[in-house]
Design a protein that fits this description.
This protein is of the alpha+beta class and 327 residues long. It has 9 helices and 15 strands. It has 2 domains: 191 residues, C8orf32 fold; 90 residues, no CATH class. The longest helix is centred in the C-terminal third of the chain and has 21 residues.
Length: 327
Amino acid sequence: MKLKVTLVIFLLINSLASHSQSFIKIDAKKIMQSNNLDAARPKFNYDNYKIEDYEKIKQEFKFLREETQIQFNYPQGNCHNRAELMSMYLKKHHISHFKIWNFAPSKFSLLNALMLEVKDNNDFAPTGVIKWGYHVAPTVLTKIHGKLDTVVLDPSLFAEPVNFKKWLAVQNCKESFYTFLNPDWYLFYTMNGLTVSDYEDYDLNCKKDIDMQLPGYLPKLMTGDFYSYNPTSKWLEKGMAINEMAYKFYLNELLPLKKDPTKQDLIKEYKTLFGSVNNIESIMLGYESYCKIDKMLLEKHKALIEKYRKIFEDETNKWLERTKDLY
């Protein structure tokens, strides 16, 4: 089988520009299908987006931060769900926008482990630093003091709309690659466990009868292909619920302990359980077999985990109600 591995593009880019934050243009034919969701190399054109009034954008930012009930105080994960939800509100309010994606080298290179890093203002992450493989947020064109600007709406990092270069800089990875995409693209495929079909010369009309599932143990490297959100998956609502539940844990359980110097070991355990989005999602979504947390630690805090699992379920149901009118 002559399978076209699109990741080669990203590896080549990484070898050519490994020491500067670089823009990548994703532009190619649709070449892959997986799990009945269309995947594509999206095209982007600035001309498709109108210039919005800056005062209107500031008001919208305030609305997103204060009135949507999106939890921006747990930035550890689910940025793609926050961005998708904010995009829904922007569409509802008829605000022209797109998304900016920033990728760490670790997402498209086998040989580079660098990740995006941001300061953890809550001191909740196990390592004291929040690390991402990628980050995404809604972006608009506007004029500030008569000058055209590209600004990002990301209340998880800033208290106001900011120029996209400032948004990139705060993620502390000069080797990252960023791109602008249509807001309809929700997330990207990675190699691990992906089901792919081989297309002759990337022509969908010449599909061969070959489907192949890549091994799940492969690294989570990008293929370069994106897909739109499927509301039946409920991943958006679950992601918002994870963040809300985790921040409630921080306020109710961890924060009160910080004044007690004798509780440092317990604080460390709490950070391991709830301060890592990968860990808490594995626990709450029933993927304990993939969780890297020591089983004795899970057993020790079983009652606490069950308490917050119920909170997670309640928050998921709340979000399912909130998003009904947005689809």
